[in-house]
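User: What would this chain look like folded?
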Amino acid sequence: MKANWEKIEQNVGLLEVEIEEQKVAEALDKAFRKIVNRVNVPGFRKGKVPRKIFEARFGVESLYQDAIDILLPSAYSEAVDQTGIVPVDRPEVDVEQFGKGQPFKFKAKVTVKPEVKLGEYKGLDVPLADTEVTEEEINQELERLQQRHAELVVVDEGPAQMGDVTVIDFEGFENGVPFEGGKGERYSLELGSGSFIPGFEEQVVGLNIAEEKDINVTFPEDYHVENLAGKPVVFKVKLHEIKRKNLPALDDEFAKDISEFDTLDEYKQDLASKLKERKAKEAQSAREAALVDLAAANAEVDIPEVMIDTEVDNMLKEFENRIRMQGLTLDVYYQFSGQDEAALRAQLRPDASKRVRNNLVLEAIAKAENLEVTEQDIEEELNNLSKVYNRSADELRNLFASNGYLSTLKSDLEVRKAVKFLEDNSKQAA
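Assistant: Here's the prediction, encoded as structure tokens.
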């Protein structure tokens, strides 16, 4: 096989490939064996038509498309390996020549991973954030623990207050006509959570049990349902239940209930120690991220839009998995947030662009500094993952290999080495 790569514009080039006649003949044989089982020729059982009779009746050209489909993927993959390019999108393929007794020639317009021109990345100066724990931070953590261990108590009388969990029926109307998706029965809504349209929850405050009320709100201008965006609507609401948080007292009994300590003072000392440890880890992570951002800002790289599009796809999947773990779906999220997929993608795009840029720069640093990932590095990572997933390292290796994930794992480890290099060679480390 002959393969030639020529750059024609920024991050885009032309891959010219020529496959020898023998490979074409083999592909035509495979195509015939595939097609012959689907054709009917009088005098022959299905699948038993001789090749010469098939070609005389249907023409050898009837095999060409299937033969191309058989030959092209492996030929393209081999040409990519031979030329050493790294495609980041599907190629635009143009078949120039294909026929019996001829070489197979095709051209592929390919978008490839961009080149990175590194700027300054050694001796970067990023200070470490303060890790001291204040009394206010300890008290804030105690308040969060209070909220987490609060008991929801049914309120028999009195108006709903901000912070209450209310059980309501609601139905929305626009110009007196009910609209789709605007109805719910015995829906649990925490007032102040911001999960409903702005202005809705505030108007539930003050309602008494069994009381009904018309709530007037206006949908946001960027609401994902086009015919409701920016429209004033009325929700008819009936309040069924009020549940109020009963916060436990911050005393020794509280400390005993949630920890192994006998007094609140002992628990606060332990809490301060854990908060300091957490702040230290967060400060270190923040410093590493800042070092990467600074190195990326100092570099020059022209990122193909398709790489950002792909990263947005990945981030959208990550987001969907996170909200699914909270019992939500994307459709429900869009309804509550007033966004649609296009708006969410636009929101994710700046972070996606930053992720792609940072990873490209880290890969370039790893290459410039010969930061190679060894077999021992991979083995150690598989051992760490085996503890997380409760599966043997060998089992994980086989699973990753079968899914083609080992190369991704190696790339992740390479990026981590580059981050550590930035840290080790920063001014603070020196």
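Residues 383 and 393 are 5 Å apart (CA to CA). If you want, I can go into more detail on any region.
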